Amino acid sequence: MASILKTIYSPQDLQNLDYKELQCLAREIRETLINTVSVTGGHLAPNLGVVELTIAIHRVFNSAVDRIIWDVGHQSYVHKLLTGRQAQFSTLRQYGGLSGFPKRDESIHDAFDTGHSSTSISAALGMVLARDLKGEKYSVVAVIGDGSMTGGMAFEALNHAGHLKKNLIVILNDNEMSIAPNVGALSSYLSSLRTDPKYSRSKDEIAELLQKIPHGPKLLKVVDRLKDSLKYLVVPGMLFEELGFTYLGPVDGHDIKAVTTMLKQAKNLGGPVLVHVLTKKGKGYEPAEKNPDLFHGVGPFDVVTGAIKKIPGAPPSYTQIFGQTMINLAKQDDKIIGITAAMPSGTGLNKFAQEFPNRYFDVGIAEQHAVTMAAGLAAGGYRPVVAIYSTFLQRAYDQVLHDVCLQNLPVTFALDRAGLVGDDGPTHHGVFDLAYLRNIPNMVIMAPKDENELQHMLKTAVYHNAPTAVRYPRGAGEGVAIDSQLQTIPIGQAEVLWDGEDVVLLAIGNMVPEALKAAENLRAQGISAAVINARYVKPLDEELILHYAARTGHLVTVEEHVLMGGFGSAVLELLERAGLSEVKVKRIGIPDCFVEHGKQKILRANYGLTAEGIVETVLAGEQRLHKKRKRIKAVWGRE
Ligand SMILES: Cc1ncc(C[n+]2csc(CCOP(=O)(O)OP(=O)(O)O)c2C)c(N)n1
Ligand SMILES: CC(=O)[C@@H](O)[C@H](O)COP(=O)(O)O
Ligand SMILES: [Mg+2]
């Protein structure tokens, strides 16, 4: 059969198709999603779940004019396929290729860049205000999942939008899943809307019914007067109605016709409207339907079996070691608590959750709440560990500062995905944490050189009587042996791995193994490089660093983090404080830019975060030093 998908160059082309053809199109889109993501990796299950919904959205709205904002944006692949990006689809999430998230730079059909959750309603409301202030006419639609709806920002926006009463459409894509099964009272409420037949009648239907029966109109008035009590029994979506939204639904999100009809209705209604759409995450691909968590964001896999392709012999990931260490520590100490903001598998806390269900809390996508709740637990005598991606802690900055650090509470931040995360790109790289945490008094910050050191650092952090952060990268560890006994590492103590005379390579975290390789290469070229594993970014091992700085006069810092305000900056500040201004310092790290998406290996090479990059930097510095020495000698007769 001829491909329908190939005839879709823009969403306008959907208008020529009947519902049967649209269903065929949906099947083709699913096939394309599965085949492509099985090679590139990506957010498969969320996209499989929104195929029909996305088709319906593009039938009702014109994304070249109307604004469609995809919350998180991980479910925007279908939208990309329908908006002129089929030819590039195989480059999805690859270096230089299509982004896995909406990007205004990529297409006029992408109204707003997303990646972090729960921002869509705020952004949409802002666009509504801009539209109305300018007197323009178009629809603004936020598409938000039930998981993202648990984020505080979403409620702040609903609250404000309900108050402003402006024309705005929110589509709630309810698949009962965040990455893991969705949690919380809101999730239970949405389930009740799904399942309880007494909720399934619309307000209008009930009014119509009452008009028809004897004394009905009178009854309607009574009902109206008693709305605060009775409405709860008869009106679906009461929570949203009370917030000022007209609630429509629930509607089967895989029925293109039904969704199209409801979206048209929403478009014609005035004021804020919420359309509740029910979908199945992973729809149409059995492995993803059965295991939506695994196929939420997945690496390359075998299409036939659904088996994830693993690199044979790959060492355990930092995440796995973190998860296991949490269990080991918690077995010895019932004060240890594990907290995640909707990322149990991503952070490795899922196994801890099984072993210690009473000491594990998934708070939903609510990073701010997670941090302040941890502060409360610490104030109550517990040792909470907030396991969180570096990029998502950005959202809880004030909570870290005001609720944890100001009171010097012993909360541990296990910052996974610190550094360049790869395919997710700029919204997800965890390259700002050192800068945003280092300036907060009381905070202790460490980064392990390998997965074995991670477990010792975690123990150190948990038993330090102050806020601590341990940052570690996405992916496999170094493959080193794992000690069976956990130790604590004295706060602020670095480690000399190689001694040397000409230059000192001062590295932090996963850059330490690269520095070691670089030192070996330099030695072969006759340059004697010392290698220090800094371990702590705060407090620095000042004595050791100053000793080596004075001895070699040439210091290179290496960090997978932005240069501004990071580890190297901390070293420069130290040298300035110590008055060692003549020491030559070169910092390797990420300059003042947002890093694109692509494999970690490519990105690291681009920014010199490799052994080769370190060698080049040292040699360039040596040449300059050599020239400088020669110049001085020519003028002064001495170096
Ligand atoms: C602030 C923030 N925290 C955590 C995440 C990680 N994350 C991405 S998608 C997701 C689940 C979203 O669930 P939902 O909105 O229901 O979308 P679904 O995948 O079910 O379609 C989470 C927790 C994020 N992107 N942003
Ligand atoms: C969209 C999102 O925020 C998450 O799904 C994220 O992509 C997960 O990243 P990891 O693959 O590193 O767990
Ligand atoms: Mg969901």
Automatic annotation (TrEMBL):
A GO term from the CC aspect: cytosol
Catalytic activity, EC: 2.2.1.7
Domain of life of the organism encoding this protein: Bacteria
Catalyzed reactions: D-glyceraldehyde 3-phosphate + pyruvate + H(+) = 1-deoxy-D-xylulose 5-phosphate + CO2
Matching InterPro entries: Dxylulose-5-P_synthase, THDP-binding, Transketo_C/PFOR_II, Transketolase-like_Pyr-bd, Transketolase_BS, Transketolase_C, Transketolase_CS
Subunit: Homodimer.
Name of protein: 1-deoxy-D-xylulose-5-phosphate synthase
Species per Swiss-Prot/TrEMBL record: Desulfotomaculum nigrificans (strain DSM 14880 / VKM B-2319 / CO-1-SRB)
Record lineage: Bacteria, Bacillati, Bacillota, Clostridia, Eubacteriales
